[in-house]
Amino acid sequence: MSQLPDFKDRIFIRQWLVLKPYRKIMPTDNYYLQLSNKVKMAAYGCQEALMLSLYLESEEIDLLWCFLTSYLEDLVSDTNLWNTFVKLHKALYQKPLPFFDLEDYYEGEVNWQDIAFLIWYYLNTMQKEKFILASSGFITTLAHAVFEVLDEAWEYAPENNALKPFYSLDDSEDIGFYESRVLMDQIFFNSYLFYPDTQLELKNEVEIIFEENKGERHLLSYLNERRDLMVHSLYSRLLALRAKDWASAILPEGHRLAPKIKDMSHKVKGFFFYKGQDQQNIFLEHIASGKQFALTKKSFDSHQQLNNLDEIVYIGMVRWDNEWWFSGNFFSSEYDAELVVKERNSVESKMEVDFLDRQNKALYKVLEKQERAFKKFTNGSSLVFLESDKIERFLYDFFDYYNNSILKLKNKKHLESNLSRKIEYEVSSSFVDEFDNGLVFFNPKSGIEVAMDVNSAFPSKENPFFDEELSEQHIIDVIIAEGFSTELALHCVNEYKSRLPFFDSEKGKLILNNLDFLLRFGKGEYYFSYPSVTLVGDNKS
Questions:
Q1: Which of 52, 101, 184, 488 has the smallest number of CB atoms closer than 10 Å to its CB?
Q2: Using alpha carbons only, what angle is made at residue 449 by residues 446 and 455, rounded to the nearest 5 degrees?
Q3: What are the DSSP calls for 210-272, one per residue?
Q4: Residue 272 is part of a domain; what is its CATH number?
Q5: Do 398 and 341 share a domain, yes or no?
Q6: What confidence tens digit (pLDDT) does each residue in 297-356 have?
Q7: 407 and 289: one domain?
Q8: Domain encompassing residue 457
Q9: How many distinct structural domains can be found in the chain?
Q10: Can you list the residues of the chain whose pLDDT is less than 50?
């Protein structure tokens, strides 16, 4: 437990600026700093403020008051961050916010429900050890106290004209991929709304890279590559969306670049063979998968460095407006037979391009074969409960059964099942020592998955490990923790809801009424499940 700061201790400008995309003090910053201190004093007028120290350090609590004041600044300055969240939430759920009664809610104005939601969001992103429900009474009490201060300031608070340019984009013809990438970066890594989420995740990654690469002359290159990868690949806790989704939504309706940003692909990075070039493109072959790429020269000024066919190129690229654009790092080297063998045997490298085949029906045919085999192997069940030291044997036995009875040799030439990789991964983990029991689930959208220490979320007659005392925590874990798929969570709810007393409680009803939002919030990227199969071949991308 952290020490609750004395309410007389002031918040300083350096703390306020942590949540800003600039470091120079702007004319309105002193006003909002003073307002943050008023918010702090109002909150500490409530006994419930003591609850915050159960979850946050004192510096983080001070930052919470700045975070909530930034919400008002966002509304007043028309930077459109909060309103974009409301818009996207309405598109998914036909209401502005989860959790709360919205009878007295006014879009575009200060609302106590907004503040309560932001407190809940901040608490559950700044720390992940304890999941706090939005129905917790201290959150509502604090929200009303803060609302009184912000509502009084609503009519008189000044616009911060320095903010909006960071979260907007010119609509002129010369603005394109790289300017859009900057907007995505600003939203995820330089905004108050995503500070406790993606910005802190980047900060943690940077600290790890610094620690692991002290004195390395390529340190800056490593940092740039990681940031570029994260801006294209991270999913927000809010609605499980990528930076491109937020950037396209924050732009005004009809903006020329909004659909192009929305359609931007995941980033591909890795080793390629150089296969030549013409006036428009550089031709590359992904070594691991054999897929062909045409990188537009509009994005790559170093094409003159490439001269020798089959020299090896490490590069990153993103599909933008139906062309592949350079993004991240680049270096080239001579042909290296050892590297080529390593890449062609690497499932991880092949998976770099998996997303390009997600609409391919062949993937789903393989997955359907796997599911039929699994259910035949388990006498019709998609879920098997086992002692932890028996899971390894079960996986190997099923994999052998599947290979021997289902897969044809001709399919092996074109389709490589990721199932074997998953088995190796799970077998090499330490779950046998850490947990007494677990389960094996066939996810109809992705394939085999193993889940440990959540058996009490499933009151099946085939589950000898069900413990009613552990049931509530296991249910919450399955729904909230990113290590368990959306499909496993839905299996729990859809198959066993009527047999789980937890779902009759107020807490359980709140979760059921906001189930999809909480699944997205807890799982992020892992909210989405895709076939664990990699297509290998020379098809163009």
A1: 101
A2: 135
A3: HHHTTT-TTHHHHHHHHHHHHHHH-B-TTTT-BHHHHHHHHSPTT-TTHHHHHTPPPEEEEEE
A4: 2.40.50.140
A5: no
A6: 999 998 888 989 999 999 999 999 999 999 999 999 999 999 999 999 988 898 888 888
A7: no
A8: 361-527
A9: 4
A10: 1-2, 409-410, 412-428, 535-538
